Amino acid sequence: MKYKLILAAFAIFSFTGDSLAQLPGAKAIKNSLPKVTLGAKLGANFSELHAANVTMIRQGYKPSIVGGLFLSMRKGRYGGRIEGLLNPVNYTFAYNASQDGKYKNLYLDIPLLFEYRLFHWLWAQAGPQYSDVITVTAHPNPRPATDPQTHFKSEFSAVIGLEAKLPAHLMLGARYILGVTNVNNQLVTEVPGSWKNRAAQVYVGFRFF
């Protein structure tokens, strides 16, 4: 019964869309509106927690996987994009003189990007990104009396990138993310100095419509 209702809803939607397309001026109205695209993306993330004047954090870009959904609106040479991405990252820290530890952080990244078409198939992207800390685990925890999540603060970053529109509803992109706010909660870690995330990403995506 449930499947029949869903099929009926799709049939009604399709019939209504075809009917509206036949109305006088409907095509002109449709062409004047921006093209809306919903899709999903999955890619590789190479991140580093850059710690200025802090030897506790081991430097170096470490790989992980990033993925989520996006919604874009494009008209002519211009467009806008908002995304919701789950981004698990790993950091290495000096636990003591003979042992390193691991931070495993999960972020919700929300980039809000301006898009400009360079060619028919290639778009440039730039804008801010907000990253919310969802979970943090530390092995071992450098501060056993505290929740590791409180070691980090949410942050804002700057994003630049390129995205190519491919056949079969596919796309391919690359971007660089530069953290602009300090994520080190110094009141908890008692470690002075600034921690800022940096990341490079490559991804593939699929446009549902």
Shape descriptor reads elongated
Determine the CATH topology of the largest domain: Porin
CATH class annotation of the largest domain: Mainly Beta
* Quaternary structure type: single chain
Radius of gyration: 22 Å
Q: How many strand segments?
A: 8
What does this structure look like?
- The chain has helices spanning 2-21, 26-32, 186-189; strands at residues 35-51, 62-75, 78-96, 99-117, 122-139, 155-165, 170-179, 195-207.
- Residues 10-14 have low confidence and may be disordered.
- By secondary structure, it is mostly beta strands.
- The chain folds into two domains: 1-33; 34-207, Porin.
- The chain starts with a helix and ends with a strand.
- It has an eight-stranded antiparallel beta barrel with strand order 1-2-3-4-5-6-7-8.
- The protein contains three helices and eight strands.
